């Protein structure tokens, strides 16, 4: 099952989909900290020849009330321009050649699945994929990169952005 969401700064098509969950629906336990915490499959379609690399950032905006900022669950930098998907379970073992997993808010360099604290209700997780016109951007991978900071710092290099989301509820 696949779902797509699209957001673009130009008229070119740029879509992000997943075979692991339907955008806008619940993320299965398999991809959460209550399961094996498998990183989800992500796939994208692009039409711009100007793309030189990609960046992926996964955040939980509902965590702002708990920690004062969106919680970064996954950030991947320098994804090569020829890449069109990240396989399910790729974190730490089968990432696209040349890509770098940055530190998340758990303090690790890997995917950290949905893990809302008990009693905090439904949390929403956003996967944002950025197409960049440069491949030589320097990233600080030793601290979590929030989407807002990335969009400000690298605004001149962002060609397009595609996004999907999922939710998770822990009782």
TrEMBL record:
Signal peptide start-end: none
InterPro entries attached to this UniProt entry: PEBP (IPR008914), PEBP-like_sf (IPR036610), YbhB_YbcL/LppC-like (IPR005247)
Protein name in the entry: UPF0098 protein
Native species: Cellvibrio zantedeschiae
Superkingdom assignment: Bacteria
Entries under SUPFAM superfamilies matching the protein: PEBP-like
Pfam family, one: PBP
């Amino acid at each position: 099952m696949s779902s797509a969401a699209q957001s673009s700064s130009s008229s070119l098509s740029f879509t992000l989909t997943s075979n692991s969950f339907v955008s806008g629906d619940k993320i299965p336990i398999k991809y959460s900290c209550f399961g094996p915490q498998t990183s989800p499959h992500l796939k994208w379609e692009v039409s711009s020849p100007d793309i030189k690399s990609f960046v992926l950032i996964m955040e939980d905006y509902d965590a702002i009330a708990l920690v004062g900022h969106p919680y970064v669950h996954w950030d991947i930098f320098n994804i090569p321009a020829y890449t069109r998907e990240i396989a399910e379970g790729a974190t730490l073992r089968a990432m696209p050649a040349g890509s770098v997993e940055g530190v998340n808010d758990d303090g690790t360099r890997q995917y950290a699945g949905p893990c809302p604290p008990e009693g905090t209700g439904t949390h929403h997780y956003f996967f944002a994929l950025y197409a960049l016109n440069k491949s030589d951007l320097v990233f600080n991978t030793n601290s979590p990169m929030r989407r807002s900071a990335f969009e400000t710092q690298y605004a001149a290099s962002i060609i397009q952005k595609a996004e999907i989301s999922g939710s998770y509820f822990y009782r």
